[in-house]
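Budget justification note: compute hours in this period were largely spent on complex prediction jobs such as the one shown. Inputs:
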Amino acid sequence: MSAAPPIARPMPELEGELAPFIAAAKEHRLMVQRCTGCGALRFPPREICSRCLSSSAEWTNVSGRGEIFSFNVMHQVYHPAFAREVPYAVIVVKLAEGPKITSNLLDCPIDRINIGMPVEVVFEQISDAVTLPKFRVRAQS
Amino acid sequence: MALRGEIAIAGLGQTEQGKVYDRSHMGFAVAAVERALADAGLARTDLDGLLLNPGISWGNAAMGSFMLQQALGLRDLALQATMNLGGATAGAMIQYAALAIAAGMCSTVACVFSDRPLKSPEEQRTRAGKSEGSAASYAFARGLDAAYGQFGVNAMYALVARRHMHVYGTTQDHLGAVAVSERRWANRNPAAQLHAVPLSLADYHASRWVVEPFHVLDCCLVSNGGVAVIVTSAERARALRKPPVYVWGMGQGHPGGDPAETLVSGASLASKAAFAMAGIEARDVQVAELYDCYTFTVLVTLEDYGFCAKGEAGDFVAAGHTAPGGRLPVNTGGGQLSSSYMWGMTPLAEGVLQARGEAGDRQVPRHDVVLVSGNGGLLSTHTTLVLSPLPS
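Corresponding output:
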């Protein structure tokens, strides 16, 4: 029996509305969308601002600092690419500028993760084309 | 126009539910309607309205209600729609049927749900087994969330539950108390999928994790089956085979925004309208059938209906108030955690049985004011029904 090719790790689309975010991450910058109608920041990207209904938007750099808004710990393997990673945590970071972003927390044991922890962005290269913004605990000054 | 007590549920039809494979999703829907008509003492020709909430195995069934009309051989319907508000749809179907009947558009409406997500052992060996594990079977894993390993609704609800634990001190024991309470009801319901399986809090803690803070016993079952409910005018219902279950109140609430921020479901809004129409307050409710996609959903819903203060539902359930013998029986058939997962039809069907006094070993002694809730999305859509065996 020939082995089936391994199932590729899920990757964000390089084309489309997320493209500027992916391109920025490759340059180690974290960007969110900014409505040019009312100035509201938003993430993930959307076609239309739900605050002012403008369909005009640009991308803007953010600090990459924030705090953990919530997290879960994935035990069930929903995708074979994560079979060797379970259990792993998925975090939601509330950025200092307001928007929330889903990500992972590096260099922190799962049982040490808490809501409210200050975090900062780091960039992890996943493939030649994709670098993902991830987070690590930020020492409080 | 006062609608209270003018509309009634006249028939309830349920197929066998759970790991049953003898029908297709359409077959379950048709059988449920047949049984609901027989329950009411009506014929197919008496129906002039058909509303359908298609489960996932209907696929992209934008015209599902028309397909069901053809399958049932129904002619000259005056009302029809395929509806989806997630788990709030069952309640919404009753509400839109009630409005249409009150407006004179139609007189007798079948509200239907069916689904067949489970494959039989034979199907798993043959048809379904072929695609299992192929790249195509993981085509769902797209986008940024998947790149971070975030998959599915369980994981999304887990994030909201974790917020509730952080903000209000809700504990794993509190979540487990909901699972145990509902199982104790299921142990009294011979039709429940987990009827024969006792559950202790220790069993709950020992069950496998799916996505923390959810054990597998925090998550609803997966079930095949169908449920149909016949709605008609109170006047007509009184002439039919079964005692009417009157609609005293109804409401919807769709808060928008991010429920992970507010930790408030649509129940807060929907209950105000439904209770005002019914002329009741939360303390008047004698039995509550609450939509329970997760244990956590029950906690939030109890709070948002005002059965306890915000953040105190965990203690409320842990004190035994929702279990058999408690002061507010909740999910008396075992709910979607322990009986079967027919989306919002599970709480609705149990509410009808309790109101009629037909719930057998699990019948609650006081059932004049029955609350039924539906919840869909991420605490995003909500419907409320207040039902009663009394016309007023």
